[in-house]
Design goal:
The chain is α+β, with helices and mostly antiparallel strands. The protein is 32% helix and 26% strand. It has 15 helices and 19 strands.
Length: 495
């Protein structure tokens, strides 16, 4: 950032000199400024004040200085707090020579408190005619320009505090994020779900197919993993008798970065006993709609797409979705092996865009990801995924190659993933063994064998519907933020 003033002097040195003068005169960093009125409500309370009219009472406001104009014996200072901006009407005859002259040493970015009467100028600007003011904190570095904001994307992410201070739209995203999270929690709490906390440091990672971060605990003398999912611990809660359980927290996956991926992200997982994935589908569309209403409405704009979140959302099997877009029927007898499926891909001329995978399930997943997923703009549930890519889901009764699983897609992006959870410990062991073989064959994302979880399942687990939903992606969609880095306060960046 350029720290040269318009007069050629060094801004940082100039402001340090002012700070030294303030320190000599008194306390420049007081511990409080109370009582204080928020600016936004003052605009509402005094909306009827007429031009040239003063209010009867006295108000006290505080905020960051975002503008200052001097006109001889009259100075205008604009303060900004979280709720809005307010002009301070500063007069020499009201403040006296010393306090009025001190205003010359107030810089943009300083925090100031002021007291006075609300008034409306002859030009119609609601203002505070101040009778006293106090410096609350000195800004030693110049703030981004008020009307142009902070435009460098890299700086916005690395110095989020400046982004929040300079860009109202950015700050609004994170305020909305808090409301979305609160709405999701309210939705689940009202339906009898119990929020719990499970370990972030785990002796064995699991619950998803992903590469973990590894750390070491000195006292325990063992490696631990940052969790990639909360699934297996939440299922232990179901086994223990908490029939509706959820957790919203950080997961960590040692993977690439994109507009929809960050190695540290917020995931919601829910598990409900005695329901299947059809019940969970209805819950997802209703919960998403409630979160949308908390920050606006059911129609949103995301990445130049107009999205209608109104339930119900369409349900479409993966088989039908792929056949509709490519003409390949993955459920047909002539596509039952990976070789047959790859032959069909080549016959359709899709092998230049669809990578060839070593296993049938992975090949189906690649075919779907390349040819179907980007075209799923309006909300839709894609159901019945390959068994090989879904180690925790129950098989469909009509075809054991597929499972009772859905993913919810919006604007070509996966938002949610859910199963009719596997509760047969013998079947689960077989799935784990296959994953261990995949790991031995070089798949770093394959699931490890978890004997402790299998032992828990052997005590009995009721039929259960489980869900994973990316909170960051939900916030992206509901706020129109184009990148996951725009909805994570301090995203991961290269050094």
């Amino acid at each position: 950032m350029d720290e040269q003033s318009e007069h050629g002097g060094d801004v940082f040195a100039e402001r340090r000199a002012k700070l030294a003068a303030w320190r000599a005169a008194g306390d420049v960093y007081p511990t409080e400024y109370q009582p204080r009125d928020e600016i936004g409500p003052l605009h509402e309370a005094y909306a009827a004040l007429e031009a040239g009219q003063d209010s009867a009472g006295s108000q006290r406001v505080a905020g960051r200085v975002v503008a200052r104009r001097v006109h001889g014996k009259l100075t205008f200072v604009v303060l900004k707090d979280l709720s809005g901006e307010l002009q301070l009407f500063c007069q020499l005859d009201m403040l006296g020579d010393e306090r009025y002259a001190a205003l010359e040493h107030v810089d943009l970015g300083d925090f100031v408190g002021a007291e006075g009467r609300m008034m409306r100028t002859r030009r119609g600007e609601l203002s505070l005619r101040i009778t006293s003011w106090q410096l609350l904190s000195k800004s030693l570095r110049p703030m981004p320009e008020k009307y142009h904001g902070l435009t460098s994307v890299e700086t916005r992410y690395r110095k989020r505090y400046l982004d929040l201070a300079a860009n109202d739209d950015s700050r609004d995203v994170f305020i909305k994020r808090a409301r979305i999270v609160a709405a999701v929690r309210h939705f689940l709490d009202d339906r009898g779900f119990v929020e719990v906390e499970t370990p972030v440091l785990q002796p064995l990672y699991g619950g998803a197919l992903a590469k973990p971060f590894i750390t070491h605990h000195n006292e325990l003398e063992r490696d631990l993993y940052l969790r990639i999912a909360t699934e297996l611990y939440l299922k232990r809660c179901i086994i223990g008798g908490i029939d509706r359980v959820y957790e919203m927290g950080k997961d960590f996956r040692n993977e690439g970065v994109s507009f929809k991926h960050n190695p540290e992200f917020t995931m919601l997982e829910t598990y409900e006993a005695y329901v299947d994935y059809n019940h969970v589908m209805t819950m997802v569309e209703e919960m998403t709609a409630e979160a949308a209403r908390a920050v606006g409405g059911l129609k949103v704009t995301f990445r130049e797409h107009e999205i209608d979140l109104t339930p119900p959302w369409p349900r479409l099997t993966m088989r039908k979705a792929i056949e509709s877009e490519t003409g390949i029927d993955i459920g047909a007898d002539d596509a039952r092996t990976v070789a047959d499926l790859q032959a069909a891909i080549k016959a359709k001329g899709l092998d230049e865009t669809v990578p060839l995978a070593p296993a049938w399930g992975a090949q189906v997943d690649d075919l779907f990801s390349e040819c179907v997923e980007p075209k799923l703009i309006q909300p839709v549930f894609i159901t019945e995924h390959p068994l090989e890519t879904s180690p925790f889901a129950k098989k469909t009764p009509h075809d054991p190659r597929f499972v009772e699983r859905f993913e919810g897609f919006i604007a070509g992006m996966e938002l949610s993933n859910a199963f009719s959870e596997l509760n047969d410990p013998d079947d689960q062991r077989e799935r784990f063994m296959q994953q261990m073989q995949d790991l031995a064959d070089g798949d770093e994302t394959a699931h490890r064998l978890d004997e402790d979880f299998l032992e828990a399942m052997e005590y009995g687990m009721p039929p259960t519907g489980g869900l994973g939903m990316g909170i960051d992606r939900l916030v992206m969609i509901l706020t129109g933020a184009p990148s996951i880095r725009d909805v994570i306060l301090f995203p991961a960046l290269r050094g």
